């Protein structure tokens, strides 16, 4: 239990990896170009439940949701099998968002295999996106507009799966169409829509993009990933962004998430949690509980 102030919380977005036993190309030799936090070599080490317990000592999440960690793409079900075994032996994670390439020919078989694991709640497959707002365009192969990608997306609901979306705010017009066309599939936007640029004009565009997506009732938001390259994670920088995001989506559709250990590149766990708590401190107790705990329990079916 969270012993910091007695308010229980769920971490709705975290990762584990064992680099000695399992394949993660981006951590084992390959380099991600233009990684959003810059140098990520500090992540190239094992990160397991004992490491998360160390990083959360004094404010332990009641439950955690593991988001696929880019295990080698030739066998995404193997990651789910390993995580399920980890949960049995260590008690973490509490639920899994697995991977399936929605535009691959074997998507039906992979989704059925993933959905058969009791801890699996949803799927994340990062669509092709544009590098910047100035370059944003529709209809790219592998994007949310791609007919083949959308055919895979259509198979989520029959398998009882939600979708975790990682995409920058300037591509959320595609997500709006996706949410409209598949109203029975819950779409959960990761990392606050990636508001990396904090000029007044960029934040205004980010808010408008979130407002358009939030108008779809089958969408939700994870508040995480707010670090910026070369800058410390501060409340002055991020509390206004958190408050704007919650104002747009509402207290019943936002969740706290750490993105650990990735966000350990920009802050320790306590700093990120304290910043979220500061952003919601003036809200009623019922809303604080929803934002910290109840929304994640409902959206990821953690009961």
TrEMBL record:
<dbReference type="InterPro" id="IPR006680">
    <property type="entry name" value="Amidohydro-rel"/>
</dbReference>
<dbReference type="InterPro" id="IPR032466">
    <property type="entry name" value="Metal_Hydrolase"/>
</dbReference>
<dbReference type="Pfam" id="PF04909">
    <property type="entry name" value="Amidohydro_2"/>
</dbReference>
<protein>
    <submittedName>
        <fullName>Thioesterase</fullName>
    </submittedName>
</protein>
<comment type="similarity">
    <text>Belongs to the metallo-dependent hydrolases superfamily.</text>
</comment>
<dbReference type="InterPro" id="IPR052350">
    <property type="entry name" value="Metallo-dep_Lactonases"/>
</dbReference>
<feature type="domain" description="Amidohydrolase-related">
    <location>
        <begin position="10"/>
        <end position="302"/>
    </location>
</feature>
<dbReference type="GO" id="GO:0016787">
    <property type="term" value="F:hydrolase activity"/>
</dbReference>
């Amino acid at each position: 239990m969270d012993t910091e102030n007695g308010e229980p919380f769920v971490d709705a977005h975290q990762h584990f990896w064992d680099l000695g036993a399992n394949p993660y190309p981006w951590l084992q030799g390959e380099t991600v170009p233009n990684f959003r936090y810059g140098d990520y070599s500090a992540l190239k080490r094992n990160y397991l439940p004992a490491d998360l317990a160390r990083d959360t000592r004094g404010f332990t999440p009641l439950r955690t949701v593991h988001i696929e960690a880019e295990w080698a793409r030739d066998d995404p079900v193997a990651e789910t099998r390993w995580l399920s075994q980890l949960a049995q032996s260590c008690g973490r994670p509490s639920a899994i968002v697995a991977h399936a390439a929605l535009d691959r020919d074997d998507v039906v078989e992979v989704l059925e295999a993933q959905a058969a694991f009791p801890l699996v709640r949803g799927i994340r497959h990062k669509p092709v996106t544009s590098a910047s707002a100035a370059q944003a365009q529709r209809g790219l192969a592998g994007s949310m507009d791609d007919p083949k990608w959308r055919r895979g997306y259509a198979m989520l609901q029959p398998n009882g799966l939600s979708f975790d979306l990682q995409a920058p705010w300037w591509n959320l017009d595609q997500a709006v169409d996706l949410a409209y066309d598949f109203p029975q599939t819950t779409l959960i936007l990761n990392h606050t829509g990636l508001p990396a640029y904090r000029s007044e004009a960029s934040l205004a565009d980010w808010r408008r993009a979130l407002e358009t997506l939030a108008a779809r009732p089958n969408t939700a938001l994870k508040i995480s990933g707010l670090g910026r390259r070369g800058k410390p994670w501060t409340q002055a920088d991020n509390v206004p962004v958190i408050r704007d995001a919650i104002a747009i989506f509402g207290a019943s559709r936002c969740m706290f998430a750490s993105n650990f250990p990735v966000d350990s590149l920009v802050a320790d766990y306590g700093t990120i949690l304290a910043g979220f708590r500061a952003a919601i401190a003036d809200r009623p107790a019922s809303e604080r509980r929803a934002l910290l705990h109840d929304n994640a329990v409902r959206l990821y079916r953690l009961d």
